[in-house]
Amino acid sequence: MVGFERFSIYGFSIDYPEDSRVQFNPKAKREAGDVAFEFPDKVKIFLSWGELEKAAKSFQTAEEHAEHSLNNIRKSTKIKNFERISRDALNVHSHNGAYNRIKLEELTSGVFMGRRGVRRDACSVHVHCSDSSRYFIIYAMFSADTAEEYARTLMAMVNSLKCH
Which end of the chain is more exposed for a tag (fewer CB within 10 A), N or C? Predict the structure, then answer.
């Protein structure tokens, strides 16, 4: 079993598996950004943050924010067979959070193979934190055969989030 280490930046923190590599988006800043935790098998779990005031202009709740994100995925020309597996309300560090898990088929193109679909599972958690004036999104896409393991890892990370 792999242990966890604490990642902390800009006044918030999250625990991540110690066998993953931290990759910063070079454009990340205090107000908005993202970081990826890449595992040895190249799966990545992402943590994004942004200004709550900007998000609140379009979304009153984390649930509305999550629905908007899912609708964007659903509308993508590279996605077919979109299916929501679960939707739950969470308590994340005293804030309401929105958890979603989906199955989809991602269309990939190859020179000799044409377009083919690859089955994927994805999980996301959206959290709005008025104390830090930020929103947080933790999400990942996995192959179907590793989905359960990574979904548990993602939830362990979510449960460790300290947003303020």
Answer: N
